[in-house]
Design brief:
alpha/beta; TIM Barrel; eight-stranded parallel barrel; 8 strands; 42% helix; binds phosphoenolpyruvate
């Protein structure tokens, strides 16, 4: 039985005091929550939020990291610096990183392997563009991103990998994939993981859905066999919308 895993990606929002207010509200509202939880604030608020979620059932996540451990990489943040702040998980390959900042599968794969090397959990985001879906290429795109993202990842490290299926056309647009469409891609990606690592690994891997998840659609999505949680953007910015998703029945 897979555990549900609900993660909030706060993107480039919130000052430290705003982030602290939200973290405090979530710590209190989710303390009896039955699922696995994560918040991923901006780098600037990691220390503040980390102090508030430490010892609770909410993990601390970062939204990205560099592919190198350290060095002359102006503006980047390293895995060592994240670990120093108590970060447990890093989101990698988010569609905004892939499409706005032009990160490719090879770069994302290096980040995945570096995160694993340092004991971080990695949420590997995959997902097709609207034109790729319309051209009937959604499965192919997700397969390629999964295979290339996991290249060289040992089976023994797979417990620290979460996949987030986020169709790009559904992110921040208010358009959600239907639970059936999302589940079909999740099932396909699970099969891809099975081909790479075997049936047991495929059965165990957590595959989150992301793309305009809201309190109104969370339980319908989560009811699907292959949807094991959510990576939430917009609705993660307020306790009023994130808590009902996180506590979905
Ligand atoms: C995201 O950024 O990962 C996301 C899914 O955003 P939203 O929930 O706003 O669509």
């Amino acid at each position: 039985m897979r555990n549900y895993y609900i993660a909030g990606n706060w993107k480039m929002h919130k000052t430290r005091s705003e982030a602290a207010d939200l973290a405090r509200a979530l710590v209190s509202s989710l303390k009896d929550g039955k699922h696995k939880y994560l918040v991923a604030p901006s780098f600037t608020a990691l220390e503040t939020v980390g102090a508030l979620v430490k010892g609770t059932n909410i993990r601390l996540g970062a939204q990205n990291m560099a592919a190198e451990e350290q060095g002359a990489h102006t503006g980047e943040v390293s895995v060592l610096q994240l670990k120093d702040l108590g970060v447990q998980t890093v989101i990698l390959g988010h569609s905004e990183r892939r499409h706005v900042y032009k990160e490719d599968d090879a770069l994302i794969n290096r980040k995945v392997k570096l995160a694993l090397k340092h004991g971080l959990e990695a949420i590997l985001c995959i997902g097709e563009l609207l034109e790729e879906r319309e051209a009937g290429k959604a499965e192919q795109v997700c397969e390629t991103q999964t295979v290339k993202g996991l290249e060289g990842v040992a089976a023994s490290d797979l417990a620290n990998i979460v996949i987030a299926y986020e169709p790009v056309w559904a992110i921040g647009t208010g358009k959600t994939a239907t639970p059936e469409d999302a589940d079909a891609i999740h099932a396909y990606v699970r099969k891809v993981v099975g081909k790479l690592y075997g049936a047991d690994a495929a059965e165990k891997i957590i595959i989150q859905y992301g793309g305009s998840v809201k309190p109104e659609n969370a339980s319908l999505l989560m009811a699907k066999e292959n949807i094991d949680g959510a990576l939430v953007g917009g609705a993660a910015l307020k306790a009023e919308t994130f808590v009902p998703i996180a506590l979905f029945a």
